[in-house]
Amino acid sequence: MTNMDNDHIPVYSTKSIIQKSETEGIQNQDKTGTKANKQKPPPNEKKRTPDMGVRPGAQEEYSKWKQSFWKRNGVPGPEPTPFLGNLGQIRKQAIVSPPAEQKDMLTNAVDEHWKFMRNTLTATFSSGKMRLTSPAVAACCDKLVENIKEQSKDGKEVIEIKHIFGCFTMDVIASTAFGIDVNSQKDPNNEFVKQAKKAFDISFTTPFVMLLIIFPNLASLWNTLSNWKVTKNAFTDVFNFFQKVTLSVMEERKSGNDQNRKDFMQVMVNSHNEAVDKEDKENMVDYKEGDSTWRNRGLTVDEITANSFLFFLAGYDTTANTMSFMAYNLAMNPECQEKCIEEVDKVLGKDKPNYDNVLKLQYLDNCMNETLRMYGPASVLNRHVQEDCKIGGYNVPKNSILSIPTYAMHHDPEYWPEPEKFDPDRFSPEQKAKRHPYAWLPFGQGPRNCIGMRLAYLEAKGAIASILQRYKLVKCEETEDPVIIDVSTGLLRAKNGIKLKVVPRA
Ligand code: HEM
Fold it and tell me: Measured from the CB, is residue 454 less than 6 Å from ligand 1?
């Protein structure tokens, strides 16, 4: 996605996205798709002088002109409010790229540069690389269980589960993306932990980010608006810290220390000389042998730094929230938790989780998928339209931004009967076969989908399985029922956290 220069378009109808064919033949549709787009804003009736005042209703017409773009193009939807359009309705579904000035982040890159980096980084998350990374994830699972043991005091203490999982995902990213071992639960004053938390707080709690949610096309002003300097400078400080960490880790690797470490950092460092395996090629965007955008060079130091940092921003809270809601769902549905425990005992026994045994936890997989349906952290997807096109019979002009409301789609009773019910069997092969594949999009879709999905499954399933090997997750008086959702920061999370008891298994 890029910084945009056109209308921000909320697409409301799940049906219009999912069942394109059903919406063909709409009335009032401009056949060429151009005439309607060339309409001008309402003209002033006459040249106004300062004392003439404004024609009744004209102010409102102007204030809604941008927001009524789709209405004028025949696309049905809710009535926009002046200036903010339908923000009230889509706020629940907003996700935003971090406001980094770093052009080398995958999320900020475009065209050939994005393609080169996406293909290079895709290799970082291949199943082969995941296998190499799984001992590092298993070590973090051990720390997680140890921290739970210390906090739970034989199941008597109430645990803020989101905090525990936040520390876990922080440890995983530190270890896999930066090659640094930390225990953020036990050592909150560690410099890496402090800076990482700062980066995250800046990205997701400042008014600037809220503004970006409201007006995504303002992102291009990031470098020029001085009243955001404080935030920008703070963010740059944090980025500089991560840059120093990356450089010193790379230096250490070059000097021979830790060269055999199998983490993303090493894969990125080796990117110019590593072999490309068959699976990498299959997952790459438009991969062609000898393509000039691919492997004509390795990743630069700036690209490695920017993307290690991005992995942290994109993978920390998303995965921690998913795990928290998963634990919540299992505590609220003990019969489902029993099934998971049975499966974990059968498949893992007392073994540590790794890429292959975690893949075999099919019921736990269904529980994670159902959790992502109910509480997927990214509740909206955005696309920048590159060419004039038709979607579901509607004309969509070049340079529009489409917002796809996944939260709304995941709660549409037409596709998900009793949407508020936790029912992991919705993801059985039979149920899945009956559903449109795009009815469930927690990781997005297409070439720009989530690159870290495999890691997210390995982390979340591995950690929950490690807990269930020893403990049960139990609802207690402090557990909110139903849990209150907060979307004010752009990412969906539990407003008051999630509190549970973690009781040792008999
Ligand atoms: C449960 C956890 C996660 C969820 C629900 C999630 C969801 C998403 C979504 C919805 C997108 C946008 C996709 C689209 O527009 O089609 C995305 C992009 C991305 N995600 Fe994730 N994500 C998760 C974990 C991770 C992790 C662990 C990492 C890395 C360590 C990661 C790295 C990224 C990156 C780099 C992109 C941008 C890809 C690009 O622009 O080419 N994510 N993620």
Answer: no
